[in-house]
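Progress against Task 2.4 (sequence-to-structure conversion) is shown through the following example record, which the project officer requested during the mid-term review.
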Amino acid sequence: MQQQETSLRPRSSAYLNALSQEIEKKLQRALASSSQRRNLLQELFADIALEVDDRAKDIILCREEYVISPAEYGTNGRLCFYDVLADYYVRVPESGNPILDLIVQLWCQSFASHIFALLFHKWLFDVQLDNADVLLRYSSALVQGATNVFWIDIQSNTRRFQSLFQYLLDEVALELTRLNKIPVQAQRDLYLLLSRFIFFYNSVEKLESFLKHCPTFPNTFLIGPVDILVIELADQLQKLKVEPVLLHYLSQIKVLQGMELRMATSTRLKTCLYSFTSPGGPMYPTRAVRHAAWDALDLLFPVGRYPRHLISLFFRILYPWYWPSSCWNFIVSCLKAVFYSLLRLIFSGWGKL
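Structure tokens generated for the chain above:
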């Protein structure tokens, strides 16, 4: 068994080294061809974001000193190539240096920041960079690239890049040793980034700890960590166009119940939620979104609940073209309520027998 494991080590090392060489070749082609540059970078980004197939996983997941172990699988058992390579470049940094040099030369191109964030998000917090300008540039590229890939998850309603988010949250934002390695401005940008996506990636249970690790902002004496979080969240909600994602946010947002907010922040969140309660522009929410927004609004701001509903009903009366659908949905809801009440009555009668 030990001989078999030893024989797998050079095979796994060679495989990861070959992956790095392929990445380097594609970056060189992108650098040499201005007309095909964007397409080549997009292809490379798609390749490293792919999930590792079973054959490659058998090669990679061996107990070598710089190879990822089964315990380090990606989130929910999903392991992507960027997970493996990010870990590999931390343990064998010389393999990533040529790739990093090429990415720097392609810095302003589309998908360059995406690739950097996926491949070097761990490396950035494990190396010692003495040049403050270079560190700020890398940190800014990481935040920008992470923002871009998280939005890809939002638009497709997938969580392919959740492992990247979890690393930035658990191992950086909540770990001061790593967080303090990047400039203060980058720390602030990272906090704002995580605030916008913490609900999407199902990490609300870490919200309290996250708020305690909020970096210092210039206007901290005016607004606290919770206010910063809610402001970013309200802005994020206004940008969401994918219904399942929006519904997910509205269901998760209820965790804010009981948190103290400034009047301006509270009004901002209330206005944001209220904009999803009415059909038509500017948000054009679906019926499911409207009901979810009402539920969140009533839970977070119970004061004024009934006047809000009366005002909403009054404005609905002003738009007759919504009456048929409203009446139909009301009738369906009543029939469902009666049906479920009868079922409960029948089952309770059977239980007594």
